Amino acid sequence: MTKPRSAAGSLASFAPWAAEEGVRVALRPVGLLPVAAWAKGAAVPLAGGRFAFAMAELAVRQPGRIEKAFAPLSEIMAWGWERSRAVAESLDRRLGALTRARPPFAGLCLDRPQIMGIVNVTPDSFSDGGDFFDHTAALRHGEELLEAGADILDIGGESTRPGATPVSPEEEEERVLPVVRHFAAKGACVSIDTRHARVMRSALEAGARIVNDISGLTGDPDSLAVVAQAQAPVVLMHMQGDPVTMQQNPTYGDVALDVFDWLEERVESCLAAGVPLERICVDPGVGFGKTHQHNLDVLRHTALYHALGGPLLIGVSRKGFIGHLSRREPPKQRVAGSLAAGLESLNQGAQILRVHDVAETFQARAVWEGMHPAVG
């Protein structure tokens, strides 16, 4: 790491206490540019994708205190050295994670956004509960999603809507395993949406490639060991509380940063257990233990989560905040809002969108790619 020669400029008097014990720093890329700007030396790449950045929001905090400022990267890095070597090294790690190219995830190349189609084999999911509870209907729906352009099928057998009743692992297996086996045998990339270690293990044995856990591998004490032993790619999602309680007055100090801290701890736990970073995807958990305003704050800060070093999945499809902002439409009438929120997350570099409406998302992605062409 080379010490910058320039002074901290506009940050000269910013957070003079940053060298104290217990201080954490965060970087959120802002003012994203076409990646061609990076080739000209004006910016650095964001996660190896289509965008680059030369500015960032710097957040400095310790318990009970937080300061934020926007500045050029050169000034931010100089500011770090002026505070302490530890602060400078922390910023250097953040910047390295933000700019590192992402390798394929579960065999999927991330040079374009991936579409994860949802198959709920449940009687009570918030949007389509009961529509595909029958195995025949679930298989037909999955086939339709693949035909519509889904890159991944996310198969789940337990509703995790607010207030949902938990399902036993045995019942969950009966619901999902026939569907997992069918699509794995066809060569589809299957994700198992579960928080139960037993279901993870049996679904992986049945051919699932990805574990997608709303609890970030905290809901079952055996989950982390199952993922590590199977060498399975995993999606770690943030949720405050559990589906029964998560919408009962969720509270944060700074929601975007609190979610970041929690996800960072889960990434570190996976790394310590032998799960390499290239097999770890993060999801800030829109709609899980968050108010409508919390959801918007998290989405505005989407680019922040690239500093965790892995691919970023965003799930906004048909979520309640869309109806709250509009006309209180029921879930199946929130397609336009889902697309608007999803495309905004792509504009901040998200690599995977988890959606109900695959055909509509496929078309929206095609237009987005035309407007934001890849380089090379």
Description:
- The chain starts with 23 loop residues before the first strand and ends in a 5-residue tail after the last helix.
- It folds into two domains: 9-99, no CATH class; 114-371, Alpha-Beta Barrel (TIM Barrel), CATH 3.20.20.20.
- With 376 residues, the protein is an alpha/beta fold.
- It is globular.
- α2 (73-83) packs antiparallel against α3.
- A hairpin with a 2-residue loop joins β5 and β6.
- It has helices spanning 36-39, 73-83, 85-99, 135-148, 169-185, 197-205, 223-230, 255-272, 292-300, 320-325, 335-346, 358-371; strands spanning 24-30, 33-34, 44-45, 51-53, 55-62, 65-72, 114-120, 152-156, 190-193, 210-213, 234-237, 280-283, 313-314, 352-355.
- The strands form three sheets. It has an eight-stranded parallel β-sheet. A three-stranded antiparallel β-sheet has the order 1-5-6.
What does the secondary structure layout of this molecule look like, with pairings?
Blueprint (H helix, E strand, L loop, with lengths): L23 E7 L2 E2 L1 H4 L4 E2 L5 E3 L1 E8 L2 E8 H11 L1 H15 L14 E7 L14 H14 L3 E5 L12 H17 L4 E4 L3 H9 L4 E4 L9 H8 L3 E4 L17 H18 L7 E4 L8 H9 L12 E2 L5 H6 L9 H12 L5 E4 L2 H14 L5
Parallel strand pairs: 7-8, 7-14, 8-9, 9-10, 10-11, 11-12, 13-14
Antiparallel strand pairs: 1-5, 2-4, 3-4, 5-6
